[in-house]
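Predict structure. Chain length: 127.
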Amino acid sequence: MIRKLGFFLFAGACGFAVDMGVLWLFLHFRLLDPYSARVLAIGSAMLCTYAINRTFTFGASDRKVAVEGARYGSVGIASALLNYAVYSASLISLPGISPYLALILGSGSATVFSYLGYSRFVFGSKR
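Prediction complete.
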């Protein structure tokens, strides 16, 4: 349990770095607005965390890769929606807040939800 949680937090930290980096690139070079940039940043982070979680945190499940990936994607999308909702609400309700601080608030809010979803629904054993 502690080992899994440690690797999950490591995967989350890597995903957060990817999320922040992609967001920074789009905003720094004025390629996209903060809302559009965050969608692409979350998607990039999700790919990163899937690779780490499947390899180190939970291991491959006893499901087919396509089923596992679909389950991971469904939990990831739900988590991303929660993450994005908090991010957007922060930008809208707190004028002048940094998009990077809003990213931290959004990411933090989705961490517990995603751990429970990944550990039980995606990588947990079939029943």
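Summary: The helical segments are 2-28, 34-57, 65-93, 99-122.
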